[in-house]
Amino acid sequence: MNKKNRTEPDDKENNEIEIEYIIEKKKGEESKKGKPDTEGDEKNGEETIEKSKNEIEELKKAVKQYEEENKKIKEQYLREAADKDNLRKRMEREKNEFFQYALSDVFREIISILDNFDRALEKKEEGDKKHFREGVKLIYKQLENLLKKHGIKPIKLEGNKFDPRFHEALMSEESDNVKEPTVSEVIQKGFMIHQRLLRPALVKVQVPKKKS
Asked: For position 116, what pLDDT does the model report?
């Protein structure tokens, strides 16, 4: 009986000690867990700074690369613009030269005809009318052949019918002898150049008489 009474207080004391130990242990663990890891934070901060520096360097390299590419594109654009401007000026110059000298061969042949006119006029001064007339006919034929060579031909009348596409009525008169406008006289010849009208023929036209 006395032995039993001695054991119970001892067990109670031991339990209290054990509980206090567990509580202290948990407090220690929580304290250790809640304590900031200064070394780890410093390491993470250094890594973040280093990473940011690397990213900044990469951005600087990218910006430099874009600036160089932009410079090349700008230089290329300026070169192409200059080339186009030079091409435009050259084409304009060539076009002007073409219009200035395109008819050089034709004028060269006309000059030869003028030489023949000079010779014919010299013959007239000598009083040889027959040779003068023959010379003028030859010159006329020479000039006519020159025009044909370059596609220039006189407009031919087809049945004396007035055609406003090729004829220009300089004057007109009424007549009982016609049923439609008819060319009665060619005052000045008209000419075609290939398939186009070069100069209309000036004509006198007879028109049907108006019924009273």
From this structure: 84
